[in-house]
Write a structure and sequence with these properties.
- By secondary structure, this protein is an all-alpha fold.
- Helix content is 75%, strand content 0%.
- It is globular.
- The protein starts with 7 loop residues before the first helix and ends with a helix.
């Protein structure tokens, strides 16, 4: 289904980009203003392709259905239960959940990014409208960045426990957890070897992932394998494979750019290293498995990590200007400019080709869900008919 583009979705990205360009992206007032604007535009919106699905799950949970019959993990299930105990309806629950999660996300980014406004730009262009409606994945991406930041601050055990808890909200939490545990167990010489290996062979690894994607596409076209996959996915997705797509091209471009910047970085802090591993492994998995619907849902989260990685890795280039030369700095600047343009194209593609984005609805304007309005209208019509019938009799 296709829609026309609504300008509201370009407002915050372009303002953020302007602040980054003017060099005011890290001012405290600008940070607060951009974060608040995000909450007002996105967290208080009534948009997203998963909004109706999650409302159905919320309704069934309130009616007493058990966890086994609800699509979701225990953490999110009991979060809904708590919401019912507090007397919140679905829209209130959604608004509070997205607001709190967004605050955690931007607090973490503010602590990690070297250009907050540039980070907000990438957050608001890299699949955010979809991801924010997938509550469980959004919780994982926001709190995993927070826990990785905490790990970098020395709160290692607490961070690992926090990432384990995230497994009770969505299975994708296993990716940041695995990266942190690996770093925790083998930090030092072994992790330095891994950094060196990825830096040296990142292009080869991407090419290998693409080759495996072709192999997987062929394998999944075989009847018995396809039947097994269909039974695993059940009602949640189709086993349809997608060899080439716009999503694949856009993710390829960004992973190449970020990997190149990572390769050129002189020093990589442990926190940046963990976030890069998290991002890199996630995108490689997306490339290898040609199930656009499944992998797109699972890996949209990881695309937002460029909001941390690009500003941090760019900062490393800037602070080494005398060592690497002005030509290298300009080359990196040109690469980032291209990625910014592509990010806007990615946003435009989302607005044109995916459902759940329009019409733009927001709680602050008193908007209601269209389905809710239809139900109210039908109930009003039924009530009017009941009032008319006695008069006719």
């Amino acid at each position: 289904m296709s829609y026309t583009i609504e300008p509201i979705y370009y407002l915050l990205p372009l303002v953020s980009l302007a602040c980054a360009f003017l060099g005011i992206g890290n001012r405290k007032g600008v940070k607060v203003a951009l974060a608040v604007a995000f909450v007002l535009i996105y967290s208080l919106s009534l948009n997203g392709s998963d909004l109706e699905g999650y409302r159905e799950i919320y309704r069934r949970t309130g009616e007493g259905e058990l966890l086994g019959s609800i699509h979701g993990e225990a953490g999110y299930y009991y979060l809904m239960k708590l919401s019912f105990i507090l007397g919140f309806n679905y829209i209130t629950f959604r608004a509070i959940l997205l607001t709190v999660t967004s605050i955690v996300l931007f607090y973490s980014i503010a602590k990690l990014s070297q250009n907050f406004a540039l980070s907000v730009f990438f957050v608001t262009t890299m699949f955010i409208v979809y991801t924010i409606s997938a509550y469980r994945q959004y919780i994982v991406i926001a709190f995993s960045i927070f826990e990785i930041y905490q790990y970098g601050c020395g709160h290692k055990r607490r961070a690992i426990i926090g990432l384990i808890i995230l497994l009770f909200f969505h299975i994708t939490a296993i990716l940041p957890l695995g990266c942190v545990i690996y770093h925790h167990l083998f930090r030092g010489q072994k992790t330095e070897k891994q950094v060196s290996f990825i830096k040296t062979h990142y292009v080869k690894l991407i090419i290998l992932a693409l080759a495996l994607r072709v192999v997987m596409t062929i394998a999944l076209s075989i009847g018995p394998i396809r039947a097994i996959l269909a039974s695993i996915l059940s009602v949640h997705a189709s086993p349809k494979t997608t060899l080439i797509s716009f999503g694949l091209f856009s993710r390829l471009l960004f992973v190449i750019v970020v990997s190149y910047m990572y390769y050129r970085a002189s020093e990589v802090e442990p926190t940046t290293r963990l976030i890069f591993w998290y991002y890199y492994i996630s995108i490689l998995l997306y490339i290898i498995l040609p199930l656009e619907f499944v992998m797109g849902r699972l890996m949209n989260n990881a695309s937002i990590l460029v909001a941390v990685l690009i500003p941090v890795l760019r900062y490393d280039q800037d602070r080494r200007e005398e060592q690497i030369g002005i030509l290298q700095i300009r080359r990196i600047s040109s690469v980032i400019l291209i990625t910014e343009m592509v990010a806007l194209v990615v946003l435009t593609n989302q607005l044109l080709h995916q459902d759940g984005y329009t019409p733009y609805l927001n709680l602050l304007r008193g908007d209601k869900l269209l389905v809710t309005e239809e139900i109210e209208e039908s109930s009003n019509e039924e009530q009017e008919e009941m009032e008319i019938e006695p008069e006719n009799i």
